[in-house]
Amino acid sequence: MKNITIIGAGNMGGSLIKAIKRSKRFMVHVFDADYKKSKTFEGKNCVIWESSNEACLNGDVILLAVKPNIVLSVLNDLKDVINNKLVITIAAGVKISDYESKIENLRLIRSMPNMPAQIGMGMTTLSKGHNVTEDDVKLAKEVLQCAGETLLIEEKYMDGATALAGSSPAYVFMMIEAMADAGVLEGLTREQSYKLAAQSIAGSANLVLKSDKHPGELKDMICSPGGTTIEAVKVLEQEGFRSALLKAIAVCADKSRKLSGK
Q1: Distance of CA 84 to the CA centre of its chain
Q2: Which class for 121: exposed (0-12), middle (13-18), buried (19 or more C-beta within 10 A)?
Q3: Is 114:83 a contact under the CB 8 Å cutoff?
């Protein structure tokens, strides 16, 4: 059983800790500057450390789950104990070259998970550094697939992937909230409305993933001539539903590029 060290037990770090623990495929070692926070994860196949150096010494893979503004300084502090270990980061906007400039021959994989990782249904994109091997990529995928699906992409597409997958749960939550408000307006309870909206979106997303049909074709199958759904679709088109999403994802990707100094 390989040892995974996770530095940082915040929202995303905590989600990954839970997901990897659930898989029972790895021994998890955790360090967070807030010791009380990290202690909440203690249990079977999870060891809590009071020192980041000790945590890293016990890990085969080091997963840095700290904020983008401190990730490089944290990496620099750990350079003597990381040695030739595989390092995975989840910091938005920090480029592979930024990490590699800190440590010579660093084996690094940059990743971007999203919030559904909390329940093992996340979508994580990965980009590999210059010194990683195919075995490193395979191992990184095994670790991150504990939290859902993974997709290996070139780093130049990471900003777009951040906007499309990393941030998109927020767009979906807004959509569910708005749909539920409409349900309440129609007389349904808040609880009923959230269930109807959330399950409909979850089911539709799974249908896209499991069907060989284009999303547009699936949409057309619901829109009967002169029916109720096509009326709703007409309003969504008139109100700029598609263009709003296009613009939102574009500005999100642009913000990611600015953060990375491009």
Answers
A1: 26
A2: middle
A3: no
- Segment 161-192, tens digit of pLDDT: 999 999 999 999 999 999 999 999 999 999 99
Strand, coil or helix: 17: helix
Residues 6+ away with beta carbon under 8 Å from 130: 96, 100
E-assigned strands of the chain?
Answer: 2-7, 26-31, 46-48, 61-64, 86-89, 107-112, 122-128, 148-152
Give 4-32 pLDDT, tens digit per residue. Answer: 999 999 999 999 999 999 999 999 999 99
Question: pLDDT category, 257, cuts 50, 70, 90?
Answer: confident
Is a pLDDT exceeding 70 seen at residue 262? no
Three-state DSSP string of 83-107: CCCEEEECCCCCCHHHHHCCCCCCE
- What residue ranges define each of the domains in the chain, with the CATH number in brackets? 2-155 (3.40.50.720), 168-259 (1.10.3730.10)
The CA distance from 73 to 25, in Å, is 30
**Torsions phi, psi for 22 (to 5 deg):** -60, -35
Closest C-alpha to 159, from 257, 68, 65, 249: 257
Helix (H) or strand (E) holding 231: helix 228-238
Interatomic CA distance for residues 23 and 42, integer angstroms: 15
pLDDT single digits (tens) 224-246: 999 999 999 999 999 999 999 99
pTM confidence score: 0.91
C-alpha distances out from residue 222 to 186, 200, 236, 238, Å: 21, 13, 15, 19
The phi, psi pair for 123, rounded to 5°, reads: -130, 115
Confidence label for 106 from pLDDT (cuts 50, 70 and 90): very high
